[in-house]
Amino acid sequence: MAQSPGSGPVLVTGVAGFIGFHVVCALLDRGSQVYGIDNLNDYYDLALKEARLAQLSGRNGFSFEKIDIAARDDMSELFARLKPAYVIHLAAQAGVRYSIINPHSYADANLVGFLNVLEGCRHNGVRHLTYASSSSVYGANTSMPFSVHQNVDHPVSLYAASKKANELMAHSYSHLYGLPTTGLRFFTVYGPWGRPDMALFLFTKAILEGKPIDVFNHGKMRRDFTYIDDIVEGVLRTSDTIPDANPHWDGEEPDPGTSSAPYRIYNIGNNNSVELMSLIGCLEAELGREAQKVMLPLQPGDVPETCADVDDLVRDVGFKPQTPIEEGVRRFVKWYRDYYRV
């Protein structure tokens, strides 16, 4: 593993998104030159995306271009012109439930778009591609905590399948062209500037408006909620750590988490599964009011529980997420009240 923090410009995709915005803030704080792109689609409130971008615009070292990663010619021209040293690819069509309603948007952004990123890296001497995968790739797996060394061939949503496909596509480029790639399986990310389609945001809005909240799987859902600052720290540390081929990799007993190519997969999660009702309890305490709960069955495409094994992350980059849910919820609620003036 080669360490190379901060040397050379970084291209970050999806910079108007929740994670992308925070990653760019952290990169700029440490003095990196950052090229940011986003297509500013209307999957959720565009005003929130524009407000995040407004926080970044004018900051020293940051430049932004509106580009759709699925546009092959635009992406090819961008890479050839900017010649980034590193790429942190966070743009994607997100959401498990939306993939059941609008499957074609996932093929465009997550498959075609990712191929365009891989091609841009391949043809322009990018030193390391770090990209967002998802805990959803574990699908029908039930052995906890989820490990990157487990087989993940049973996705239960098209979104999950598209993220698993990203890992496979990245591996082929690492193998064929020696392109170092690192895939990051994020576990239920939350925090200030979060996505309005995520549970914490939806619950906060509804409780403050005196409206009922939908509680799926009759509250028996468990998630490895991971605070945004921990995700960002994991992204930066893994981006700075360029993977080598694993000399011990064996085709007779193939390890899914590493490779004979310069390829790695990491979980970034809190390594702590929290019941949904506990999250709601933290939120009620923070907001000072009780939620009206509508108990519903498990949604198609959802899994009952997630929990991350982060041993590889700790071993290779020396970092373990550990923000407690109470602290993370407190910070989110403070941001929400400030932003929406409630």
Structure explained in plain terms:
This protein has 342 residues and is of the alpha/beta class. It is built from 11 helices and 15 strands. β6 (128-134), α6 and β7 (181-186) form a beta-alpha-beta unit. The protein starts with a strand and ends with a helix. The relative contact order is 0.15.
Radius of gyration based on Cα positions: 19 Å
The oligomeric status of these chains comes to: single chain
Question: What's the main sheet like?
Answer: 7 strands, parallel
Q: Tell me the β content.
A: 15-25%
What ranges have pLDDT less than 50 throughout 5 or more consecutive residues?
Answer: none
Instruction: Please give the share of residues in helix.
Output: 25-40%
Order of helices and strands: EEHEHEHEHHEHEEHEEEHEEEHEHH
Outline type: globular
